[in-house]
Amino acid sequence: MDNNNQFARLDNTKIIDIITKIPNLTDDDRHELSLRVASDDVEIRKGALEKITQSQIAQHDLMAIMGELTALNKQGMYVKSKQTIKTGSGTFEIEMKGGDTKLIIPVLVILGVVIIAALVIVFWK
Amino acid sequence: MGYSYNFKDLDFDFSDSRYLSHWDFMLSEFFNATKEVKKKFLDAYFNEYGAGPYNYMLRTYWYSWEYGNRTVSDTQSWRIYKIMETLLDDNGKHRLGMNEFMMSIKSTVKSFLENQKKLYSKVQNLKKTQDIIQAFNNELSKIQSLKLADVKPRILTEEEKEEALEISKYILEIKLQKAFDQIERDFNIFLPYMHKFKRGIFSADYSITLFNLKVDITNTGIDDVEIPKFKIKEIDANSRFKEYSDKYLAYELVSIHKEANKAVSNSFLNSNDIELFFAHYKELSNGESEVNMNSTFQGEGGILSLKAQLKPLKLLKTSIVISSIKLAIYFIVIITLVSLAINHKLFTLLIFGGFFVGIFALSLVSEEIKQLKSLTKEFKTYGQ
User: Fold this and answer.
1) What whole-number distance in Å separates Cα of residue B146 and Cα of residue B229?
2) Chain B residues inside the 8 Å CB shell of A88
3) Which terminus of chain B has a smaller tally of CB atoms within 10 A, N or C?
C-alpha cells in the first residue's frame, strides 16, 4: 500500500483555485474559506492516519491468529475459532472449524461393533 | 404573556440552515431600526391603534426595548410586524430581498435532499451493476426539472427567482456528480477482485449509502463501470445579491469538498484490506478447516460486503465417510434389535418398543440421510 499516493488524493489546490476564481468574494471571505479548507484538511488527515494505524494493528493481529491456528492444525488438534478484527476500512470476521479427524472414523467403527456385540450378548440365549 | 425573542442581525448565516420567517425579519428590522424609523413607528402605532394602546405600549415595553430588552407579547409582535412592513426603507428591502434570495436557494437544496432521503428510505436491490447508470440519469433529470422552493418572497423579481433556481440546481448537480464519481471509483476498485473467488461459496454486495441501493456484484463478469459525466453549466451570478450568492456557493463548494475528502479518507485502505482478505482466503482454501469469512469494506460511496465459505475437500470426504458409518450403525442396530425380538418372540416388546423407540430411530436415520445428501452436494460445489 502506498500511503503517499492515497494522501495525494486529498488534494486541496483545486478547491483553493475555485475559491480564488469566484468573482464576488472579498479578500476576507477568501481568507476565511482558505482557513476552513486548511482546518478540514487537518481533521481529515488525522482521521486517515488513525485508520492507517488501525489497519496495521489489524494486519498484525490477523497474522498472529493465523499463525496460531496453523500451528494447532499441524499438531493435529481440533480447532474451532471465531475472530472479528476491525480494519482501517471495515471489519473482518473469520470463523474456522476443523483439524485432525483421522481418529473419528476408527472410534465410530469400534463403537458400532461394541454396541452390536452388547446387544447380541444381552438377547442371545 | 411575554414571548421572548433573542434577536440578532438577520444577515444571512452561511453555516446554518433555516427557513425564512418574514415575521422574525420585521422584528429584527424593528430592533435594529434607526431613530428616524423608530419615530415613524411610534406615529404609525398611535394612528393605527389609538392613544390607549399606544400609552400602554410605551409604559410596558418601549423603554425596556430602548434599554436592549427583547421581550415582546404576541400582540406587540404582530403590531410591530404589520407596521414595520410599511416602514422598510431601501436598505431594509435589499436585506429582505437578500434573505429571500438566499433562503430560496437553501430551501430548494434542502427540500430536494430531504425528499431524496424519504424516497430512498427503504433498501432497493439492483439486479445489474449497469442499472446504476439509469439511477444516475433519473437523479439528474429530477434535478433538471426542479422547481424553486416557495419561501413566499415579496421582493424578488422573476429573474432573481430564476437565478436562485439555477444556483440550487448547480449545487445539486455538483453533489450528484461527486456522489456518482465516488460510486464509480468504488466499483472500479471492487469489481476486479470478484474474479479472484475460485473455490467455495461466496457473495458480494455493494450498498450505496446515499440512495440505499444494494447491488449484487458477485458474478457481474465486468471489471469497471463508467458513469456518464455531464457538463455542469457554470453559474455567472449577476443579480443584486450576487456577492451573497457567490459567498454561499463558495461555502457549499468547500463543504462538498470536505465531504468528498472525508469519503476518500474513509475508503483509504479498502484495497489494502481487500488484498488482506484475499491473501487469507487463498491461504485458508489450502488448509484443512472449514472457514467462514465475512467482511465489510468502506468505499467512498458505499460499503462492500463480502462473504466466503470454504470447506476443504478432505474434510468433506471424511464427513461423508463418518456420516455413512453412522447411518450403517443405525441400520445394523435397528435390524439386530428387530431380528432378536422376532427370534425371541417378543412381539409385545416389538410393537410397543417399535412405536416409542421407532420414532426416535427414524428421526435419527432421516437426519443422517439429510446430512449425507447435503455433504454430497457440498462436495460437488466445493470440488469445482
Assistant:
1) 20
2) 268-269, 272-273
3) N
